[in-house]
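Recap for those who missed Tuesday's class. We walked through two folding examples back to back. For each one, the amino acid string is listed first and its predicted structure tokens come directly after. Nothing is annotated here on purpose, so try labeling regions yourself before you check the end of the notes.
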Amino acid sequence: MKTADAKQLLEELRAIAAEGDSEAAHSLEDHIRGAVLEAIADGSAEDARALARVALSTADIEFERWMA
């Protein structure tokens, strides 16, 4: 995964959260974090540190998160 791809997903997450669709936002947040972790783990990450920063920055986007 390239950092630009992760940043594009982050922008999509911001848009979904702004629309008020917390369920879709939470799902996309999980997808971003999972994809970043997979890329780092399998060595395909273009820049592991930059990708990790993008994944962690999803926490700064406000929307309701449900945990069970």
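Example two. Treat it independently of the first, because the proteins are unrelated.
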Amino acid sequence: MPKSKRDRIKQKCDSLINAIERALNHAGGLMEIYYPDYPQYYVFIQTWIDGLNAIKESVENFREGV
């Protein structure tokens, strides 16, 4: 694969990682609002956080392999 194409893929991955980090910050803000007073929401928000972290890790691993 040409270097320019690898660089473009890495840029896209960086952009995606930044978006995921923003989403994690938003989810963390929700957690601060609802936990511990509303435990019924904790499960949902924690699931989002876990999922976003898993996706972020996958994108980072993909980026390293490019």
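Answers for example two:
The chain has one domain: 3-65.
Residues 31 and 44 are 10 Å apart (CA to CA).
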